[in-house]
Amino acid sequence: MPGTDARGMSSDPYSAEVRALFAAPEHGGVLDNASCAAVEDQGVRISLFARVEEGIVTGLRFQAWGCPHVIAAAEAFCAKSEGSAASDLLEFSVSGLMQSLSVPAEKSGRILVLEDAVRSLGSIVRGASKH
Amino acid sequence: MPGTDARGMSSDPYSAEVRALFAAPEHGGVLDNASCAAVEDQGVRISLFARVEEGIVTGLRFQAWGCPHVIAAAEAFCAKSEGSAASDLLEFSVSGLMQSLSVPAEKSGRILVLEDAVRSLGSIVRGASKH
Amino acid sequence: MTDRSQMIYLDYAASTPVDPWVVEAMTALMTADGNYSNPSSTHAAGRRSVEYIAHAAGQLASLLNTTEDTLVWTSGATESDNLAILGAAYYRRERGQHLITMRTEHKAVTDPFSELEKRGFEVTWLDSDANGLLDIETLRAAMREDTQLVSIMHVNNETGIIQDIQSIGALCGENDALFHVDAAQSCGKLPIDLAALPVDLMSVTAHKTYGPKGIGALYIADRKGVHVEPLLFGGGQQRKLRPGTLPAQQIVGFGAAADIAQSRINDDLGHLTALRDRMWAGIRDVPGVTVNGDIANSFPGILNVSVEDIEGESLLLALEPLCVATGSACNSKSQEPSYVLRALGRSDALAQSAIRFSFGRPTTAADVDVAIELYRNGIDKLRCLAPTRAA
Amino acid sequence: MTDRSQMIYLDYAASTPVDPWVVEAMTALMTADGNYSNPSSTHAAGRRSVEYIAHAAGQLASLLNTTEDTLVWTSGATESDNLAILGAAYYRRERGQHLITMRTEHKAVTDPFSELEKRGFEVTWLDSDANGLLDIETLRAAMREDTQLVSIMHVNNETGIIQDIQSIGALCGENDALFHVDAAQSCGKLPIDLAALPVDLMSVTAHKTYGPKGIGALYIADRKGVHVEPLLFGGGQQRKLRPGTLPAQQIVGFGAAADIAQSRINDDLGHLTALRDRMWAGIRDVPGVTVNGDIANSFPGILNVSVEDIEGESLLLALEPLCVATGSACNSKSQEPSYVLRALGRSDALAQSAIRFSFGRPTTAADVDVAIELYRNGIDKLRCLAPTRAA
Ligand SMILES: Cc1ncc(COP(=O)(O)O)c(C=O)c1O
Ligand SMILES: Cc1ncc(COP(=O)(O)O)c(C=O)c1O
C-alpha cells in the first residue's frame, strides 16, 4: 500500500531468529591464545577469534560493531562453525545466513564483511597450522 | 469560522416568529367583495385583499408566492393592520417588519414587494372610498 | 425550532452516519495500548499501526477489486479529485493541454478544471442530455490529438444518474487520454470492478458510505503512463504522492466501512430501490412534479424532483422536520438554482423547486410515508397561498 | 516479538494517544441523532453540525489566543505547512521570489521549499548554531529587499529546541516579509499567544497533543497583506481557502484536545520537565553521551541524546520494549543519519546513534527508570561486544 509507504516495511524488520541471536550472543567476546582476524569495512567492524585443534575449530568468539543483522550473523556463524573443519573457513559464504536470517538486500554489503573476516581467519588459521 | 464558510450562516435562517407565521398564516387566502392589489416583482407575487368600513380596515387577506420571509411578512402585516386606519396603508413601510422578523439584508428587495403591494392597496382603497 | 426527536434524515447523499462497528474500529486505534502510534515510526507500536492500515487498504482494495498499492489515502474526494485532475494534467502537460469534463460534475471537479483553464490549459465542457446522461458520441466528437485527461463522474450527486464509465473509459483508452472517475457517490453503493473497468484514476470518500468524514482515497491504475504529480510535499509517506502522518483511525474506519459495504451492497441496493420506488409512487401524481434525472438509470439512493410553480425555499421549510437537500449540499447555501439542474435544461424556476430526497440504510418505509405526506401537504399549502395568476 | 504488555511508549513527539474525553466528543459526532450531518447542508441537522464545528474553532482559537476566523482546517500540519509556504509564495510572487528557511526544519517545510526552488523561487537555507538555535543576526544578514516569506519552526521535532519566534517575527515585520511558524510540536504544549506574537501564518496539528491524526489548522493573521492562495479547489467551504466536506468529528476532536491542553498546559510542562530531568540525570554519566540540542532552551517533552561509538540500529533494538525514535519518525525508515542532527554539525556516527526519548502525559517516573536502565545496559552490552580498536 503506497498508502503506507510501507510495502515490505510493515513487518518486523527482524526475524525471531535475529532477535534471539542478538539478545543472547553467546559467542560474543574474545578468546585468549587464539588466532584472530579483524576486518573493518562498510562502517562495520568484526573481529573473530578461533582456537583450532587438529584441523578442527574447537572454539570461536566474535566481536562486532554493526547493526543487529551483523551481530546476529556473527553469532550464528560462531555457533554453527564450532566443531567444523578449519579448512571450511576458507570457503565460507554468507549466502546461507543471508537467507536463514532474512537479511534485507540493502544490508548485504555489511554481511559480506563477515565473509571477509571468516575467510581471513581461515588463511590465518591455515598459516598458523603450517608452522 | 472560515473553517465552516458559515459565518452568519451557522444559525437557523428563520427566527421563531418567522417559523410561526409561516406555519400558520391565518390571513392567507382571498376576501370576497374586497379591494384587491396585486404586485409581481423580484420573482415574488403578492395579492392583498382589504375590506374597509368607515376608514378602518376591517378585514385583510393575502396570497403570496415567495420565500418564507415573504410569506411571514405578509401574514405579519395582515395580522397587525386589521383594525387600523385605511389611510395608514399609504405610508406603510416594511422596515419595522424587516427588523422584527430578522430578514437578511439580501432579501430586502423581495420584502419591498410587500411595501409596494400595501401602498398600492392604500391607493385603491382611497380611490374606492372617494366614490 | 425543529423537534429533533422527530427529525427525519433523508440526506444520505450529503453524508451518512458512521456505522457503530466502524466507530468501534476507529476507537481501537485512538486509545491506549500503543495502537495510536505514528505509522511512520519503526518501533513495534509503529509497525502495529502500519499493519492496521495495511489491513484497511486490503478492505478498500477488495471492495473495488484492485490491489492495495493502487490506493493513495487523501482527506476526502475533494482532495482526490484535485490530486487526480491537477496531478495528471501536470504530469502529462508535455503531451497535450486539452482536457474534457462535463458541466454537471461536482464542484470538486469543475473547480480544479476552471483553475487549470486560468493556468493555460484548455477545457472542453460537455453537455449531457436532458436526463443528465453523457452521450458517448458527444465525447467522441470532443476528443482531440492533444486530449490528455477526461473526467466524468460515476453517480451524479444531485440526480443519482449513472454514467456509462465502461464505454467512456474504452473511448478514452483508444485516444490515449487518461480517464478519471469521481466515484464519491458510488463507492460502496454500486459494484465497482477496477480490474475490469478501463478507469485510470478514481476518487472515493468514506463519509458517503457509513465511514468517517475527512478520509478518502485516489485509485491510480498500475499501468504505464498512469501517474500524477503530488500537490503536497514533505516526508516520504505514500511514495511521496501524498505526505503527512497517515491518520490511522480514519483509514481503519474507511476500511471497515468498505468491508461492511461489500458484504451488503446488494441488500442495500434492494432496500434503496424499494424506498425510492415507494417515494416516487407516492408523489408522482402531484400536478407538475417531474423527476430530475432518469429513474431507470439512477442510483436508487437518490430521488430528485422538481415541481412547477412552487418556491423552493418555502417548500423546504414546509417539509421540516425532513432533512433533505435542494441542489447539492456543497452549494446549497447559495440561493442560486443548482447549476447541475440548469445544465439539464431546467428553467431557473423548476431548478429552484428541486428537492433531493436521498435514502440510506436506516431509512424505513414509514420515513418515506412521512416524507410523501409532508411533500404533498407542503405543495398543497403553498399552492393555496399562491395568488391565482388571473387574480 | 515484543511483548506488548510491557511495551513502554516514549515516542510522544511522533504521536500521542487520543484523550478518552476527545474520543467521546468525536463519537458523538459520528453516530445517530443527526449529528453526523454534512455541515454544508442547510437543514437543522446540518446547522447542528456547524455549531459543533464553531464551538471547536472557539476552543482552538482560545488556546492560541486568536479569533475563530483566522483558522483554516486542514488534514494536518503537513498540509498546513504546504498551504502556508506554497500558498504565500504564490500569493506574493509579484513582490519578490526570495524565501528563507532553516536546514533543520521538518520535511513538511523543507520539501515545499525545495519544490519552490524547482519552480524558480530562490531559497536561502539558514544554518543554526551547534545547539540548533537560529542566531537572529544570521537571519538579518539573509534578509533582502525581495524576501517575501520566512519559515522557522517553533519547537524542533528532533531536539525540542525552541526558537525565539518573537524576535524572528519582529525582524520579518521590519522587512515586510511574511513569517510562517510550524508549531506542530508546540501547539497545546507551550503557551502561544497569537494576539501578541508577530506571526503571520502558523501550522498546527491535533495528533501531537492528544487529539486525532489527520486534522490540523493553518492560522492566517487577520492583517492586510497576509493571505495564501489555495492548493485545492472545489465547493465553497472555508472561504475557498480549503474546500471539502468539513470532517466534523475530527474538528471537534481537535477542539476538545485544545480545550484540555489549555487547562493543563502548565501542569503538563511541570510533569514533562521532571521526567526529562530525571532521564538526563540517569544517563548523563554514561561515557560519551551528549545532548543533541540544549536542555536549557528546549521543550521538556523531548530529550535527544547521542553516544560515541555505538551503532544506532543495534542500540534501538537493545532498547526494546521501549518505543523511541531515531531521527524523526517521518524519516526514520531511511537508514540515513538525521539531516537535522547533521545540520547541527554532528558526525554521521554520532547522528546515527541518536535516540529521541519523548515523554507525555501518561509517562511515569517508573517508565523513565526502565528507560534509563535499558539505555545504560544496552550501551554496556554493545560496548562489550564491540572490537577494541587496538585488537
Ligand atoms: C460527486 C462528489 N464528488 C466529490 C465530493 C466531495 O467529497 P468530500 O466531501 O469527501 O470532499 C462529493 C460530496 O461532497 C460528491 O458528492
Ligand atoms: C515539526 C513538525 N511539522 C510537521 C509535522 C507534520 O504533521 P502532520 O503529521 O500533522 O502532517 C510534524 C510531525 O509529523 C512535525 O513534528
Description:
The complex is a heterotetramer, with two copies of chain A (131 residues) and two copies of chain C (391 residues). With 131 residues, chain A is an alpha+beta fold. Chain A is 39% helix and 21% strand. Chain A is built from four helices and three strands, in the order αβββααα. In chain A, helix 1 packs across helix 2 (68-81). Chain C has two domains: 8-17 and 265-385, Aspartate Aminotransferase, domain 1, CATH 3.90.1150.10; 20-260, Aspartate Aminotransferase, domain 2 (3-Layer(aba) Sandwich). Chain C is built from eleven helices and twelve strands. In chain C, strand 5, helix 6 and strand 6 (178-182) form a beta-alpha-beta unit. Chains in contact: A-C, A-D, B-C, B-D, C-D. The interface between C and D is large, with 83 and 83 residues. The complex binds pyridoxal-5'-phosphate (PLP) (2 copies). The site of one pyridoxal-5'-phosphate has 14 residues of chain C, from helix 3.
